[in-house]
Amino acid sequence: MPLRTTSTYANEIRPLLPTGTFAPARSRLLWLPAHFLVIVASIAAIAFRWVPWPAALLLSLLIGASFAGLTFVGHEALHGALVRNKALRRIVGWLSFMPFAISPRLWEAWHNRVHHGNTNRPGVDPDTYPTLREYRQSRTLQRVTDWFSPGRSRLSGVFSLLIGFTVQSSHVLLTGRNNRMLSRTEHRLALLESCAAWALWLGLAVAIGPVSFLLSFGIPLVVGNSIIMSLILTNHSLSPHTEVNDPLVNSLSVTGPRLLEWLTLGFGYHVEHHLFPAMSARHAPRLGDLLRQRWPERYQSLPYFEALHALHRSPRVYQDDTTLLNPKTGETLPTLGSPARTTGRPTSLARPQLNQNDVAAPHFEGRASRGVPARRSLGITS
């Protein structure tokens, strides 16, 4: 299956979309005061002990959900889907990413430019898992991948969900200058933006004490991480590596539950998002229908819990572009979109089942496969 560029899809599908599809969805900015009202009111109730501790714990979960919800508002805003003015975008972005102390200018460089411009491109996309060569060359990468990445039923992989967004964003911030993601000046400004957010949280900790701060920030941060990472990881980590940025091949749309789609502003419609990043996800379901009709053999979609289950059961090292490998056991799993899983219709996968037959590594235009004989493969039935 030859790979296609994002622009070739966009040029074909854009004329089929209704007028106004790409207009700023300004009404979504109302999520910003709504989430802050939830956060401030809940923190006040915890700090002043207006509620008993079981209710305070429930408020912690609610704060965490709003932490995540704010992040998805910032995500759309910094893509220009809510407002066009650059300064206003960054103000909305800083407020939205404040729970995670992520600089909006860092996010624009890391997510908008590098990730979107090089999705699942090995050695370039900071959000993709390593190739077998990269894995073998770095002892640190081996430890991180083996101990903390989700997959192969590792219980320790849950840490990628619980703290992954915070850890990765901090790592990208600290290395942003060295890896040339940001200029010297931009890196300093990004550090200042992040430090300003951390200063606010530190001030809150001093003001309300450690127990209240744990309930007001610590637990919510874990909840927010879990919601965000459950979508970030499933949106790409089951998909092939690609040298050509083909969003219908290197991205996965994750659908439902409806409450999650509502909270995350439809972030799970990720194939659609990578095709038109500046389009609000409120239009993504309509776009998804058009993509299914036009390219049914390419479009990839899974229900949320099936995608999480597949992520938990699959390896995280790329043996080649379309084969995931567990270097410790030699077990392999074909990525989504590989011939082992192609059915001629949008993919809907059930639970992974052990399959004793080796899976031949498929060929994708753009890069030769780095074949390594597999001892056993993990197949997912469609």
Short account of what is shown:
With 382 residues, the protein is α/β, with parallel strands linked by helices.
Describe the structure.
This protein is of the alpha/beta class and 382 residues long. The protein folds into two domains: 6-293, no CATH class; 317-380, no CATH class. 52% of the residues lie in helices and 7% in strands. The protein has 15 helices and seven strands. Strand 4 and strand 5 form a beta hairpin. Helix 2 (31-47) packs antiparallel against helix 3 and helix 9 packs across helix 10 (210-236). 45% of the residues are buried. The model is unreliable at 342-382 (pLDDT under 50).
**Please, how many domains?**
2
Gyration radius (Cα, Å) is 21 Å
> Count of DSSP E strands?
7
- Name the overall outline: globular
Structural class label: alpha/beta
What helical percentage do the residues reach? 40-55%
Strand content: 5-15%
List the secondary-structure elements in sequence, H or E.
Answer: HHHHHHHHHHHEHHHEHEEEEE
Q: Give the distance, in angstroms, between the N- and C-terminal Cα atoms.
A: 19 Å
Largest beta sheet, briefly? Answer: 5 strands, mixed
Key attributes of the depicted protein:
52% helix, disordered C terminus, five-stranded mixed beta sheet, 15 helices, 7 strands, 382 residues, alpha/beta, 2 domains
Secondary structure blueprint with pairings:
Elements: H1 6-13, H2 31-47, H3 53-78, H4 86-97, H5 104-117, H6 132-137, H7 139-148, H8 158-175, H9 184-208, H10 210-236, H11 247-250, E1 253-255, H12 258-263, H13 270-275, H14 284-294, E2 301-303, H15 304-313, E3 317-320, E4 323-325, E5 331-334, E6 352-355, E7 376-380
Helix pairs in contact: 2-3, 2-10, 3-4, 3-10, 8-10, 9-10, 10-15
